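User: Show me a protein chain along with its predicted structure.
Assistant: Here is one chain, sequence first, then structure tokens.
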Amino acid sequence: MKKNPKRAILPAQKQVPPGYQYKMTPKPIVEMPTSRESGKLQGKVAIVTGGDSGIGQATAILLAKEGADIVVVYLNEHTDAQETKEKIEKQGRKCLLIAGDIGKETFCKKIVQRTLKHFQKIDILVNNAAEQHPKNQIEEITSKQLTNTFTTNFFGYFYLVSAAHKHLKKGSTIINVSSVTAFRGSKHLLDYSATKGAIVAFTRSLSLNLADEGIRVNGVAPGPIWTPLIVSTFDKEKVKTFGSDVPLKRPGQPYEVATCILFLASDDSSYITGQFLHPNGGEIVNT
């Protein structure tokens, strides 16, 4: 009888939000160890929020490998964002960096305006930027924290889709990043999991709203993924065993979510809309 896989143990570490990927140990794996690009996004333009690191960086790089030019939107993590840009340009694609707060509607309009000025079109929108603040009791969640979490995690998605909508066309795709917490809850992430649930409802509703226009809307609901969000929000002991409680007994790497996003962004998923993929290490959520 085979023994169970050994649980992952990560080095204890802690950062201040929003977290910086270049300071993490080990660094998240944002590129697939082996891959065969087929140019399935050749000539496309994609906007990726939170594209400086983690899932966003992995997604930006993978979409670029498949032929897309990329707009990387990020808050203030300039070192990580510059690394993303260099990796995209290494693929022979163009990259536009835009720094700012995704929770501000005026900034979302600016993203669209700058994208159109630089690339003349938008084909793919990946809403990924997020924040989280673990708390043990609901009373510890202040109105300010609640507002900030919803503003970044949900309003930012809504604002950017609203700003981009009239510039999308038949065949365009929108991919929203939710979380496994939207489906099974989270004891210490009450407000965060609520925003991720809102994203699920928004994605399903938006897919119906845009179906007649030929615009597909889908999402991914990752489980424990090794990103700067983890080391900047959890304590050192939590970080050490992060991801060890799922059936695969390890945290996922950003590229393992990026491959799902690529599938949903490409014509490989041409008959799929309003759906979620679940790269979560084996948790069964039955939805």
